Amino acid sequence: MTVSDMDRAVEFYSALTFQKISDAEVLGDEFEHLEGVFGARMRIVRMRLGNEILELTQYLAPPGRPVPVDSRSNDLWFQHIAIVVRDMDQAFERLRALKVQFVSTAPQTLPPSIKAAAGIRAFYFRDPDQHNLEIIYFPPGKGDPRWQEKSDKLFLGIDHTAIGISDTDASLKFYRDLLGLRKAGESENFGTEQEHLNQVFGAHLHITGMRSDAGPGIEFLEYLTPRDGRSRPADTHANDIVHWQTTILTNDVDLLAKKLREVHMRFVSPGVVIMQDKAGFSKGALVSDPDGHDVLLIQK
After folding, report:
1. With 90 as the cut, is the pLDDT of residue 278 above it?
2. Pair 101, 207 in one domain
3. Contacts 24+ apart (CB under 8 A), 123-128
4. Which among 54, 85, 152, 169 could bridge 91 via Cys, Cβ 3.0 to 4.6 Å?
5. What range does the domain containing 142 cover?
């Protein structure tokens, strides 16, 4: 995600027990082309929680725009990461002590009527840049079995990133048929608990979980009601604070880019970009999904 103040962001995520594992400034033609931002100079900090990594990017030049102040959970630029917690009540009290901005009214327990998600507890909040985040608790029998392992840690890792979408079939064609992820599950979520979790009156969602062989999942959030979520502005760029990009590792980024070109998917980068050592990967391409969420395809 793009942040406006790296030191503030690192302090915030450190309070959620993320550990900083790298901190570098980068610039040059390859980064400008990859991210579609001319004259870019970026500070990139990678932070680990459990087995997962969150990458924070501050554009030292040129700075972008803040997140729209009236953003809602059903807007199509919505994206969050779901941070798994061992104990929801303790985690909520930790967030209260940090004085985070609430999105949800309070932690919500999804009811038995939503069979696939029954007993899951969740809470939405925001970081200092207004990015949406979720803490989530999986009861026994729900979620990845590793979230049930004994641990003295309160914040365990990142289960998935969730994205607002307009059409599940279109997103499946992109993430499943083109990128090769598999559908791991789906549910239809509605009721007062879902409304107060998302802070959207009348929220009724079709949720689809996508997985690869390793790493966090990608969760589609299609609002069946209300249908008034706004599209991502066409002039959004990677230096705007609303920007997220989900990194997908592939063995052949050229072949994957060719497939995407053939079906006229939108590329942010001009194509596959050869990267220098500081990037941590040899080749990359930034592409947009059907709703404008950016996906960074990389090859080691």
Report:
1. no
2. yes
3. 123/88, 123/91, 123/92, 123/95, 123/197, 124/73, 124/80, 124/197, 124/198, 124/199, 125/95, 125/100, 125/101, 126/100, 126/101, 127/9, 127/12, 127/13, 127/100, 128/5, 128/8, 128/9, 128/12
4. 85
5. 79-225
